[in-house]
Design goal:
Elements lengths: L13 H16 L12 E6 L5 H12 L3 E6 H4 L7 H8 L5 E5 L3 H10 L4 E3 L7 H15 L6 E5 L5 H12 L3 E5 L8 H14 L2 E5 L2 H5 L4 E4 L11 H5 L12 H4 L6 E4 L11 H4 L6 H23 L4
Parallel strand pairs: 1-2, 1-3, 3-4, 5-6, 5-8, 6-7, 8-9
Helix pairs in contact: 1-13, 2-13, 4-5, 6-7, 6-13, 7-8
The structure holds phosphoric acid mono(formamide)ester.
Length: 314
């Protein structure tokens, strides 16, 4: 058995992603059917950035699986400041069945995984938000029935973690992923290339455009995210204020009229009047509350899957 982590979306193969989504749907239908953390085993859940949904859904999910969440505030642990990532990991990995971390640089969680002897899960880094995109895919599958061949349009900052994870996760699912974003905010070229290579094998595709209408026309799902990601607060005036480069990419009822059968997704928290109009997020196409709930089911499935595949299920 090989120790498995979920640090980026493409740590799962296309078949594994589908299996995790199948497992998530089964767990949603029968929430206490998998007791892979019975004991209770502890899962360490560390946050170097603010959270609501991720904290609630991991804590709830770990309890459903028979385990005990151990939430560690990054201000207390000061990982990499008070002591090295390696030493923190050496402590956690002796006591926890898995480690979940929300942090800044992807290099930090990659470093943790290097020293861990239990699965490590990315609960958001500057580069990726893979648990969120699994929940989003689960939500699209619930509402549309299938993923492969469907079109997922993302509007906003094309260089943020959600854009990157939509590209990779959508490509793995065989979807056609369109990113509508202004010049200067394109996805990272290596991630775009990786997503294109994955899509070539799954029948999907990836496309980046600066035309928001072209991005959403005929889409099955339209997604956006805050224009000010965590860690970018100093830029909030330029990103969200008057003259924002993202203003043409705001998801309005007019824009949604080009995708009349699409569901609307937002990972939340949302800023009504900026990246999305209230009439959209609170309107009939919105599935954001299903999406928020699906974090729970998707993450339970990921934890269960990683413990199984790593041979570390207690
Ligand atoms: N979508 C998401 O990750 O929510 P939180 O930042 O509240 O955890």
């Amino acid at each position: 058995m090989t120790l498995r982590h979920f640090l980026a979306d493409d740590d799962l193969s296309p078949a594994e992603q589908e299996a995790v989504l199948d497992r998530a749907l089964a767990l949603k239908a029968d929430p206490f059917s998998d007791r892979c953390l019975a004991g209770p085993q502890v899962v360490a859940v560390l946050f170097d950035k603010p959270t609501l949904r991720t904290l609630v859904s991991f804590a709830t999910g770990i309890a459903h699986l028979g385990g005990q969440p151990l939430v560690v505030d990054g201000n207390l642990a000061q990982v990499g400041v008070r002591e090295s990532i390696a030493d923190v990991t050496r402590v956690l990995t002796r006591q926890a069945a898995a480690i979940v971390w929300r942090t800044f640089g992807q290099d930090r969680i990659v470093e943790m995984a290097r020293y861990a002897t239990v699965p490590v899960v990315n609960a958001l880094t500057d580069d990726y938000h893979p648990c969120q995109v699994l929940a989003d895919l689960l939500t699209i599958r619930e509402h549309k029935g299938t993923l492969a061949g469907r079109t997922l349009a993302y509007l906003g900052d094309g260089a943020n973690n959600m854009a990157h994870s939509y590209l990779l996760g959508g490509a793995l699912a065989g979807m056609h992923v369109r990113v509508g974003t202004p010049a200067g905010y394109q996805p990272r070229s290596d991630i775009l290339a990786r997503a294109a290579a994955i899509a070539a094998g799954t029948g999907g595709s990836v496309e980046v455009t600066d035309d928001p209408v072209a991005a959403v026309t005929g889409a099955d799902a339209v997604a956006t995210d805050t224009w000010v990601s965590m860690g970018q607060e100093a830029e909030s005036g330029a990103r969200r204020g008057g003259g924002s480069p993202f203003a043409p990419y705001a998801v309005t009822p007019d824009l949604m009229a080009s995708a009349p059968s699409a569901v609307f997704l937002h990972c939340l928290p949302a800023y009504r009047g900026s990246e999305v109009d209230a009439a959209v997020i609170d309107g009939p196409q919105s599935v954001v509350w299903d999406e928020a709930e699906n974090r729970l089911h998707a993450q339970k499935a990921v934890l269960s899957f990683l413990l199984d595949r790593s041979g570390t299920r207690p």
